[in-house]
Amino acid sequence: MGRRGVPRRHGRRRRQRAPRRAPQRRRRPRTGEVHPVTSAELAPWIDKLWEAASRGDEYAAVDSAIGLLDGGTDPEALLLDVIAPVQGRVGREWAANRISVAQEHTATAINERVIAATAHHPAVRAAVAAAEPAGHVAVACIDGEWHALPARLLAEVLRLRGWRVDYLGAQVPTEHLITHLHRYGPQAVALSSSIATRLPTAHAAITACQATGTPVIAGGAAFGPDGRYAFKLGADAWAPDARAASERLLGEPLEHPAAPHQPIDDLPHLGDQEYTLIARSARQLVREVMAGLADRFPAMADYTPEQRRHTAEDVAHIVDFLGVALYVDDSALFTGFMGWTGGILTARGVPARSLLPALDLLGERLDDFPRAARLIGDAHAMLAGADPGWFARMGESPHHASNVHFPGPGKTA
Ligand code: B12
C-alpha cells in the first residue's frame, strides 16, 4: 500500500535544534580516539593498500586498514580517502592496460574484504553505536548493477553518521526493493548505479520507489559527474560521493516525491519510440553489424571463436550505450562512451579509428531513426577528429567506459 500524503522528514530531530554546527563537523564518530588526518598523511597508506591489493595479498591489505584504525584514524577517512581512491586506481590501472582483468577482480575482491574488516573493527562498532541517531535509509543497487562496492562505502559512511542502514547490496530487483520499502518504511532510499546502461532500469526503480511515498537519492558514476541523469530521471536528490550524500540527507528534507507517474512523463522524447525499437532489436542489430564487419574485413574470417565473441560483445556494448543515450536524449553520453572506448583501445595498441566501421554499419541500419543518426554522427565526428593523445587521456577517465575487447584480435584483455 502506498503512503503518499504521510509527511516524512529527514533530520527532523536536528532541525529542531539551533544553531547548527558546521557540516563537516557533524556526526563524526566521537570515541575520543579518532583523529583527523590530512591527505598527505594518508597518501602512503593508499600506496600500501594498493600494493597489497594489486599483488593479491589480502592479509597485508586488511592489516594496513586495521593498523590505521588501531592508530585512531577516522574510519570515514579510511573508507573514502584510502579505500575509495585505491579502488579508483584499480579501474585506471586496468584501463591503461597495466593490470589484467583477473588482477582487477582480485584487487576489488580484496578491497571488499577490507571494507568488511573495517566495518567490524571495535573502534568502528563503537563509533557507530555512539553516533547520534539520524534516521533510517535503505541503500540498494539498481537491478542488473553489479558494482556493489560504491554502495557499500556509502552504507558504511551513513552508519558512521548515525543512520540505520538497510544495505540490500548488488542488483536488487525493483519489486523486491518496493516490498522492502513497504515492510520497513525507511525515510529515504539511496539508489546506486555505476554503469550507464542501467539508467532505464534506474528510472523505473526511482519512479516505483517514489510511488510508495519514499523519496529517492541517486548516486554512482552512471548518473554522470554532475548528476544530470539522476535529475533527468526524476530523483529527488543526487550527491557525488558518500560524504556529500550524508550531508545532503542530514540537510534540507528531501521533497515529498512527485505524484505517481510514468517514466515517459519525465522523458517526453521517448514518445518517438526510437529507444524502445532499438532496445528491442538490439540482438538483431549486433548480428547485422557483425555480418557487415565480416564482409568489409575479410581478415575476420581468421578470428578465433573467442575473438569473434569478444568483438560481438563490444558491438553489443556500443548498441547498449546508443540505446541509453537515446533514453536520456544526451549525445554526450554516447560520444563519451565511444571516446573512452577509443582510449581503452589506444592503450592496447589498437587505433581508436578502428571503431568507425562498426559505427558506419550501425548508422546505415538506423538511418530511419533521426535521433540515433545524430548520435552516431556526433560520435563518428569525434572519433575521426581526435588525436591519439586525447584518446589516451580518455582511457584514464573513470566516467566513460566500455567493455574491453573491440576490435583487434588478441589486442585487448
Ligand atoms: C570494480 C569494478 C567492477 C567489478 C564490481 C565489483 C563490485 N563488487 O563492486 C566487476 C568486475 C563486477 C565489474 C563488472 C562490470 N563493469 Co565495472 N568497474 C569496476 C571499477 C574498476 C571500480 C568501481 C568502483 O568500485 N569504484 C570506486 C568507487 C569508490 O567509486 P565511486 O563511483 O566514486 O563511488 C562513490 C560515488 O559514486 C558515490 N555513490 C555510489 N553510489 C551512490 C549512491 C548514492 C545514492 C549516492 C548519493 C552516492 C553514491 O559514493 C561512492 C563513495 O564515495 C570501475 C572503474 C572505475 N574507475 O570506477 C569499473 C566500471 C564501473 N565498470 C564498467 C563496466 C563497463 C563493467 C562491465 C560491463 C564489464 C564487463 N565486461 O562485463 C561489468 C558490468 C556489470 C554490471 N552489470 O554491473 C565501466 C562502466 C561504464 C559506464 N560508463 O557506465 C567502468 C567505469 C570501467 C570499466 N570499463 O571497467 N566492474
Give your account of this protein's structure.
By secondary structure, this protein is an alpha/beta fold. It folds into three domains: 103 residues, Methyltransferase, Methionine Synthase (B12-binding Domains), Chain A, domain 1 (Orthogonal Bundle), CATH 1.10.1240.10; 133 residues, Cobalamin-binding domain (Rossmann fold, 3-Layer(aba) Sandwich), CATH 3.40.50; 125 residues, Globin-like, CATH 1.10.490. It has 19 helices and five strands. It is globular, with a radius of gyration of 23 Å. The structure holds cobalamin. Cobalamin (B12) binds next to α4, α5, α7, β3 and β4.
Number of helices: 19
The share of residues in helices is 55-70%
Count of domains: 3
CATH class of the largest domain, anyone?
Answer: Alpha Beta
Q: How much of the sequence is in beta strands?
A: 5-15%
Low-confidence stretches: 1-32, 398-413
Oligomer: single chain
Mean pLDDT: 85
CATH architecture of the largest domain: 3-Layer(aba) Sandwich
Short description:
This protein has 19 helices and five strands. The chain is α/β, with parallel strands linked by helices and 413 residues long.
Give the SSE map.
Layout: H1 12-15, H2 39-54, H3 58-70, H4 75-95, H5 101-119, H6 122-130, E1 135-141, H7 148-160, E2 163-169, H8 174-184, E3 188-192, H9 199-211, E4 216-219, H10 228-232, E5 237-238, H11 242-250, H12 263-266, H13 274-280, H14 282-296, H15 305-328, H16 331-347, H17 356-365, H18 370-385, H19 388-396
Cobalamin (B12) binds next to helix 4, helix 5, helix 7, strand 3 and strand 4.
